[in-house]
Specification:
Layout: H1 3-10, H2 19-24, H3 41-44, E1 78-96, E2 102-120, E3 123-137, E4 144-159, E5 162-176, E6 182-196, E7 202-219, E8 225-232, E9 235-244, E10 250-271, E11 284-309, E12 312-329, E13 342-359, E14 364-381, E15 384-402, E16 407-419, E17 428-440, E18 447-460, E19 466-482
Antiparallel strand pairs: 1-2, 1-19, 2-3, 3-4, 4-5, 5-6, 6-7, 7-8, 7-9, 8-10, 9-10, 10-11, 11-12, 12-13, 13-14, 14-15, 15-16, 16-17, 17-18, 18-19
Length: 483
């Protein structure tokens, strides 16, 4: 699975607030971009709606939409504490027609965290702790298990007409097995955001630097040799934002994010004196380069909200991601590194819109959204060139009813079609999902508890010698306390 496709899938389950929002789009090892709006536990329970229903953690403002730390203090004064947890599991099952063989490929993802922030007098201080895990398993036994914490601190304030926000965070992952090389990754993320408000508009810029270091080890079970790999992957991203959020009728948001990463890996090769090909009669160690990588990307995001009446609003949204990845092997082909030689570039575009309304005097919300996604990936690996065009069409609908007991019941669904390769047959899948959610709001928003469950299916709309299906289950919980 390509890194960009993993990122797009993970974006459906991102959550949190403040600094955690930035980490959802971190420029570290996990992926370069995660297109699309964040979907909270509340909106997950409403069929995954992303723009047409107003939500406290998915507003069209500088922190939620722009993911700029300078916008943290805009929300409110006082303390806020938020916690959340997400867990999803995909199971791909392949069946050979006429045989009883079934092959399953499993991917599970987890994210949980807590964010505490204080805002007052134009200043902000906060701390976020996250835990992430990605685990895969396939019949060949070549699984991946990536897990680790992230701890971040941030602060913000006002300097004349300019607002600022700065953060520093550290994260670590362990047990990463792409090519039977055990890895442990660490990274430090530094960011600085600035914002100003000329008239009814807000402009913002945020620079983030990710200093990533990955240590790998590949050891011969016989003990003849031991290889240690040092992989440095520094990355820099710049996000520019333009928002019009102060109009009661019209809201606009634009983001433009640039990414640049350059990495290099070296291997320290050790041979014991018992190794048959050791050129000496004693232990021998040498250091050789294995590969160099370059990656660049651009992400454009836009959203527009228009309020027709107090009870009816519409939204349009779009994202465009382009990326270019190059990996060049060194001449030391006897010592393969963590990445194979590759030259890939591509793009992913999503566009959509919908309508949302309030009913029963504000005690009910309902919305519908339609999305169209199209992408292209061109790649050259080991001298073989491939080009794939794919597309997805989806419709989402959801409803929420708030009872006088402050209990909220939610439900929704997704219906769509995915064509995994436009130019090839037997790639069309029907997409279905059902969602339910439950919320408790005892003090009108000062305390909020939310939960959601999702069941999804990909089923082929064709007959072939090999059929594949996917089942998805996801669960999410969140809590918010305001003081």
């Amino acid at each position: 699975m390509k890194r960009w496709w993993m990122a797009a899938a993970l974006s459906l389950l991102c959550g949190g607030s403040a600094w955690a929002q930035y980490l959802d789009y971190a420029v570290g090892q996990r992926a370069h971009f995660e297109p699309g709006s964040r979907v909270t536990a509340r909106l997950m329970g409403m069929g995954g709606l992303a723009a047409v229903i107003e939500d406290e953690n998915n507003e069209l403002n500088l922190i939620d939409f722009g993911r700029n730390l300078a916008g943290i203090a805009d929300d409110r004064d006082g303390w806020s504490v938020e916690g959340w947890g997400r867990r999803s599991r995909d199971v791909d099952e392949y069946r050979i027609m006429g045989q009883g063989d079934r092959y399953r490929y499993r991917v599970s993802r987890e994210r949980s965290g807590i964010d505490a922030a204080w805002r007052g007098g134009g200043k902000t201080y906060g701390l976020t702790v996250l835990w992430d895990r990605l685990k895969t398993a396939d019949p060949a036994g070549d699984g991946t298990n990536v897990r680790g914490p992230s701890v971040s601190a941030y602060a913000g304030g006002v300097l004349g007409p300019v607002r600022w926000g700065a953060g520093i965070g550290g994260w670590t992952d362990d047990q990463f097995y792409p090519l039977q090389i055990a890895h442990a990754a660490t990274g430090w993320v530094y960011s600085l955001g600035l914002a100003a408000d000329p008239g009814a508009w807000t402009i913002g810029a945020q620079l983030a630097v990710d200093d990533v270091s990955i240590d790998g080890e590949s050891k011969d079970p016989e003990g003849y040799h031991r290889d240690e790999y040092t992989w440095s992957r520094p990355a820099t991203s710049l996000r520019l934002s333009l928002l019009r959020e102060r109009s009661a009728r019209l809201g606009l948001g634009l983001n433009c994010t640039f990414l640049r990463r350059e990495g290099i890996e070296e291997a320290s090769i050790s041979w014991s004196d018992r190794y048959p090909y050791n050129p000496s009669d004693r232990g021998f160690t040498t250091t050789v380069p294995t590969f160099e990588e370059e990656e660049s990307g651009l992400l454009l995001e836009g959203r527009m909200r228009y309020r027709w009446t107090d009870a009816l609003q519409s939204a349009l949204f779009s994202t465009l991601e382009t990326f270019d990845v190059k990996v060049e092997d060194s001449a030391n082909t006897n010592f393969p590194g963590s990445l194979r030689a590759e030259d890939s570039d591509g793009w992913i575009w999503t566009g959509g819109g919908g309508m949302g309304c309030r009913l029963l005097g504000g005690r009910a919300h309902a919305g519908v959204e339609g999305l169209y996604t199209q992408g292209n990936l061109e790649s050259i690996e080991e001298g073989v060139s491939t080009s794939t065009d794919w597309r997805v069409v989806e419709a989402r609908a959801g409803v929420e009813v708030l009872f006088r007991s402050r209990l909220a019941l939610r439900g929704g669904g997704t219906f769509g079609v995915r064509d995994g390769d436009v130019d090839a047959p037997s790639n069309l899948y029907n997409i279905r999902s059902l969602t339910i959610g439950l919320g408790y709001i005892p003090l009108g928003g000062t305390i909020v508890l939310d939960g959601a469950l999702v069941w999804g299916w990909w089923k082929p709309d064709y007959e072939a010698s090999i059929e594949a299906e996917r089942e998805t289950t996801a669960a999410a919980v969140s809590a918010r306390f305001l003081f």
